Amino acid sequence: MSDLLAARSQMAMSLAFHIIFAVVGIGMPVLMVVAERRWQKTGDPIYLELARRWAKGTAILFAVGAVSGTVLSFELGLLWPGFMEAAGPIIGMPFSLEGFAFFTEAIFLGVYLYGWNRISARAHLWAGILVAVSGAASGIFVVIANAWMNAPTGFELVNGRIQNLDPIAGMLNPMAFPQTLHMTLASYAATGFAVAGIHAFLLLFDRQNGFHRRALSVALLVGAPAALLQPVSGDLSAKAVARLQPAKLAAMEAHFETGPRAPLLLGGWPDVDREETRYGIRIPGGLSFLAFGDVEAEVTGLRDFPRDEWPNVAIVHLAFQIMVGLGTYLALVSLWAAWVGWRRRDVAGNRPLLVAVALAAPMGFIAIEAGWTVTEVGRQPWIIYGVMRTADAVTSMPGLVYPFAVFTALYCFLGLIVAWLLYRQIIRSPRADEWSRVYAPARPGDA
């Protein structure tokens, strides 16, 4: 394994692991806040139990996310010194703001966890809201730094070197809004459907369990609206990619030949050597319309770019198809759940819908992993698009395969611990008939 491949593999492994905890850190606080608010309004102790349990789950995932995030910060400097030398003065600002948001989240998460029965109900709820807001802000600032790598602004390129930096202009790059919106909605959709899917699965075997019923309703309340809005944000992101990263768009759609009325490709497998895509379903003019709002618009194909500036077309196209397919499934299930709820039918009593929601449990996270694969692999061979190649930014330190193996083992170990802790939280969920015996009625003011 070459040093470049080892560095990229280690970074990919770290990002793939960390992003799950980052996403949950954005979505889970919203679930616990909604559950607590419902308890305060209804006095139903099931919502109180949900808020407490989800707060504990948030704390577990937050702790592991902090560890994996710290590893990532070290890897940026150790594996990519050329990148940090050039980009550090610009991406340093969003990363600093992310650190501020992270510590704010940690402080108020502590207040939330240990504030039960110690502060007023209103103050406790506001502590949870601040956890949710700072968690979202933390993710937004990190994505802004990544957006700058895709659409670098705020500097002048003098003799191949980045000079005359403007960090604010860098943060306000044209990819910042579409990427942050898309990622934030993805976090809510993935987390909401993961939780909803778990409780939908358990309801298939215990249909009258009030705990799972209420958990399902809260999770869908968070996940379904985000999943319905996700195609809109995806369209904004695709249009931005069409303008700013045409080679990435061509790889996403396995589009080789430049021309008008470019077809939208569903499925298919690209044959890079023959520069054609087989087995796909083509919608004439679909790509032109989605990219530029005009079915007659010309879309640049991969043949118009130097071969050494092509990303890995097969990986990018496959990852893009997975992301779009799973996102579409989540949106359709959301529409189904919204229709059932609008008709005032029992969502938990609809067995086919429960099966559909249960199947959706892992899909949001798989779609996020696929989306980040499109973002990162689709930018290659550039680490800063059009400015610095990845090969020019990697460290010259030999033997990178060894830390790659060590960190992979570490992430597997941490993943097993987290899975076990969360499993214990789930299997200890109370049965419906326990509420009258174990949980005394609680008043919202007692918090």
- Provide the succession of SSEs: HHHHEEHHHHEEEEHHHHEEHHH
How many helix segments?
15
Portion in strands:
5-15%
Distance between the termini: 57 Å
Which segments are poorly predicted (pLDDT under 50) over 5 or more consecutive residues? 433-447
Average pLDDT across residues? 84
Strand order of the largest sheet: 1-2
| Number of distinct beta strands | 8
Radius of gyration: 23 Å
Helix content: 55-70%
Shape: globular
The structure class reads mainly alpha
Major pleated sheet: 2 strands, antiparallel
Topology:
Elements: H1 3-42, H2 45-79, H3 81-114, H4 121-150, E1 156-158, E2 161-163, H5 167-171, H6 176-203, H7 210-244, H8 246-252, E3 264-266, E4 269-271, E5 276-278, E6 281-283, H9 286-292, H10 313-342, H11 351-359, H12 363-377, E7 382-384, E8 388-389, H13 390-393, H14 401-427, H15 435-438
Antiparallel strand pairs: 1-2, 3-6, 4-5, 7-8
Helix pairs in contact: 1-2, 1-4, 1-6, 1-7, 1-12, 1-14, 2-3, 2-14, 3-4, 4-6, 6-7, 6-11, 6-12, 7-8, 7-10, 8-10, 10-12
Please, could you describe this protein's structure?
By secondary structure, the chain is mainly α. The chain has a domain of 172 residues. The protein contains 15 helices and 8 strands. A hairpin with a 3-residue loop joins β7 and β8. The longest helix has 40 residues. The protein is globular and about 65 Å long.
